[in-house]
């Protein structure tokens, strides 16, 4: 996946998977190597869970899938759950794929912003990707990469000699 304007915030969380074959665990989802993959081991559905120590804003998820290499191990339907804890998650997005062969990025929320151009980010402690089904009814799954992308940061004016952007500074910027 090429560089995007959305920052990857996955490194801030603790990653876990529902099952894996030895050598093909959750670390393969973040290693940026298209030749490695998470290989589940067991009955569906399969889970990738990322828990954050504090609430984070998530704009998009990006999955690296390869139907050409993985055949029936390639996910065809994915459900995204999010919430404040593992016990209080809600389904926020359902996505279907037709023989994917690259990075696929999609908004985690379906609620549009005021301008209608993009979707609002979700502010959560936990996000979970649930593999609901594979192509050709495969049992186990391969996911070659997963990125959790935060919202685009505001651009700082180059004319501003003191670019204070924290909430504490913004709160008093116009008081005189």
UniProtKB/TrEMBL annotation:
InterPro entries membership: APC10/Doc1 (IPR016901), APC_su10/DOC_dom (IPR004939), Galactose-bd-like_sf (IPR008979)
Residue span(s) of domain DOC: 1-175
Protein species of origin: Sistotremastrum suecicum HHB10207 ss-3
Protein name as catalogued: Anaphase-promoting complex subunit 10
Any Pfam family the entry gives: ANAPC10
Family, per entry: Belongs to the APC10 family.
GO biological process terms held by the UniProt record: anaphase-promoting complex-dependent catabolic process; cell division; protein K11-linked ubiquitination
Function, as annotated: Component of the anaphase promoting complex/cyclosome (APC/C), a cell cycle-regulated E3 ubiquitin-protein ligase complex that controls progression through mitosis and the G1 phase of the cell cycle.
GO CC terms in record: anaphase-promoting complex
Entry superkingdom: Eukaryota
Coiled-coil positions: none
